[in-house]
Amino acid sequence: MSDNASATVSTQPGANAAGQSAVGDALRALRVSKGWSLEEVAGRIKFAPRQIAALEEERWADLPQGISLRGLVRSYARLLGADPEAIIASLEPHMRGGAPARLTNQGALQSPRGTIPAEEERSSSSWGWLVVILLVIAAAVAYGVWQGWLPTHWLPGWLSRSGH
Q1: Gyration radius (Cα) of the chain, Å
Q2: What is the pLDDT of residues 102-128, one digit of tens each?
């Protein structure tokens, strides 16, 4: 098969015998036609051989989600000389499960699985740290007063030793 003929990947949402799209089979066929092993491809696109095998076998549960999956598909398609955007478009139903979380106006995280109230947890932990920091500062000032390290004119009258 020539390189030009091998660069055509079927991106039709048609199904193969197992009821899945044939994109994984087409990617495998292109890889084999170029004489590349999974390890060689993995070395070139910096993804693990198990991830490339999972893509070719369309085992979506074994693949990363969202942007990482898009990056894998895009890198693999470019290496094989196929159209990455067409392949990504044909795999879109499988890629939707990993939609990234996004911030809402209230500061909570909105994900496909629901809203994660981030403000309440962040608020309580912030107050804890603020209290700890203030206590450390107060202890340092008290120790400085006790040792006489602070000038007496900096101190209020009730803290000065001379009583002025």
Answers
A1: 31
A2: 444 444 445 555 555 555 555 567 788
CB 52 within 8 A of CB 41: yes
What's the CATH class of domain 3-100? mainly alpha
Contact 81, 7 (CB under 8 A): yes
Quote the crossing angle between the two packed helices 67-80 and 23-33, to the nearest 10°. Answer: 40
Dihedral, 65, 66, 67, 73 alpha carbons, nearest 10: 70
Q: Regarding beta strands 102-103 and 109-111, do their DSSP bridges make them parallel or antiparallel, or are they unpaired?
A: antiparallel
Using a cut of 0.90, tell me whether the model's pTM lies above it: no
Q: Helices (H), strands (E): how many in the chain?
A: 8, 3
